[in-house]
Design brief:
Elements (H helix, E strand, L loop, with lengths): L2 H10 L19 E2 L2 H15 L4 H5 L3 H8 L7 H11 L5 H9 L4 E10 L2 E9 L5 E10 L5 E8 L4 E2 H16 L9 H8 L1 H12 L3 H9 L3 H4 L2 H11 L4 H14 L4 H14 L2 H14 L6 H11 L3 H14 L5 H12 L3 H14 L15 H4 L2 H9 L4
Antiparallel strand pairs: 1-2, 2-3, 3-4, 4-5, 5-6
Helix pairs in contact: 1-18, 4-5, 4-7, 5-7, 7-8, 9-10, 9-12, 10-12, 12-13, 13-14, 14-15, 15-16, 16-17, 17-18, 18-19, 19-21
Length: about 400
């Protein structure tokens, strides 16, 4: 676990929710800056999601078009389409699932909005309370009544679009109730159907937190099916909770099977970090940074790499660069607070904590003397001065 996350977990249980502003939305090459109305749409989407209000996203997410894209070669079977829509809307729908995954202190912020080859896309950075990182690339379009909506989402953690994910959901429905459509599927998809019950058991076990059971079910599948991207990711997710060596081995297998895949880049950062192969970790970060069109937050991950190598000064520079580029993300502030505590630079501790409270809406506990991490600071004159200047809750 990164030191950023360690400090955040120590504090966030007793800190009030952040009131986050938005970072500037900047176009990233290639492509042209998107029209102002698209930028305003993305700004509103981010603002509402960071307030944990998923209604705007839900209203402007065209799930029907996603489903249509998923099954466009299956004779537009209406019953199948309705079943997929019902499935994706269980539990409140995709935007609510995103908000839930973010947690109380996570963020969902735009990196850029751009138009290229007649299509407008927006890149969103999703950062959970626990520090898990993901990116969503939204495909935006105008509806028939001239409203902007998202018609598909490329999810970096899964390495596929939502319509592709829905396609696999359609296979499960076909296996159970629509056998007449089997002949219209690709050969690989037909093979997939032969093992639909075991595949379903893998995913259900993961969802239930029965990770060894998920791995046991995965082992029953033939190698050709095990190599499916979604199942390879399911194996990684399960092994992460079972055994570190198995987790690293599953990451390696994914990298070999899917070289240069965005999902692989996200996961291989962790593999390089765990193995202490820091050059490989940094190279993966550089590749991911380029792939997403530039993300200043990744400097915080580079800073973590510097920290574990004992390069505190370099880490401070990188955390500071993160703040300059992504001023509304709290994690780098927490990291710099921890460094300042370790170095007994208590004036810097007080300065950073004041920014967290005044600018990011963070509220530290009123009595930090009981927290071992803050023991030295809480006995200092800087602590007394910081307490005296704090706004009352």
């Amino acid at each position: 676990m990164s030191r950023i996350v360690l400090l955040a977990l120590l504090l966030l249980a007793s800190i009030g929710p952040a009131s986050l502003g938005l970072e500037p939305v900047k176009p990233a090459p290639p492509g042209e800056p998107a029209a102002a109305e698209f930028v305003e749409f993305v700004d509103e989407l981010a603002k509402t999601m960071n307030a944990r209000d998923a209604a705007f996203y839900q209203e402007h997410l065209n799930l029907k078009q996603m489903v249509s894209r998923a099954i466009r070669d299956l004779s537009a079977d209406q019953e199948l389409a309705d079943g997929l829509l019902q499935g994706i809307n269980q539990g409140g729908g995709l935007p609510i699932a995103i908000a839930r995954a973010m947690g109380d202190k996570g963020t969902y912020l735009p990196l850029w909005v751009r138009t290229a080859k007649g299509r407008t896309r927006a890149m969103m950075r999703m950062l959970t309370s626990e520090g898990a990182l993901n990116y969503h690339e939204l495909l935006l379009a105008k509806s028939a009544d001239d409203h902007i909506e998202a018609i598909d989402i490329y999810v970096f953690a899964s390495g596929e679009t939502m319509s592709q994910t829905l396609r696999r959901g359609a296979l499960n429905v076909i296996a159970a109730t629509k056998k007449s459509l089997v002949s219209k599927l690709l050969e690989g998809e037909q093979d997939f159907l032969k093992h639909a019950s075991t595949i379903g058991a893998v995913h259900q076990a993961n969802l239930a937190g029965k990770y060894q059971e998920a791995l046991d079910e995965y082992a029953k599948l033939p190698p050709k099916i095990q190599a499916d991207k979604s199942l390879s990711i399911a194996r990684i997710q399960a092994s992460m909770h079972v055994n570190q060596d198995l987790y690293i081995a599953s990451l390696d297998d994914f990298a070999k099977q899917f070289p240069n895949d965005p999902a692989g880049d996200l996961m291989l950062i962790d593999a390089g970090f765990l193995r202490k192969e820091f050059d490989k970790c940094l190279a993966t970060l550089d590749r991911l940074d380029k792939r997403v069109g530039g993300d200043p937050y990744l400097n915080a991950v580079r800073a973590n790499v510097a920290l574990v190598q004992g390069q505190a000064d370099e880490a401070k520079k990188l955390f500071t660069a993160t703040i300059e580029g992504a001023p509304r993300v709290p994690q780098p502030y927490f990291a710099l607070v921890e460094i300042s505590l370790n170095e007994k630079q208590y004036a810097e501790t007080a300065r950073l904590m004041a920014i967290l409270e005044s600018d990011l809406g963070i509220r530290f506990p009123d009595d930090l003397a009981q927290n071992e991490l803050f023991k030295g600071f809480s006995a200092s004159p800087e602590y007394a001065a910081w307490q005296a200047k704090r706004a009352k809750p």
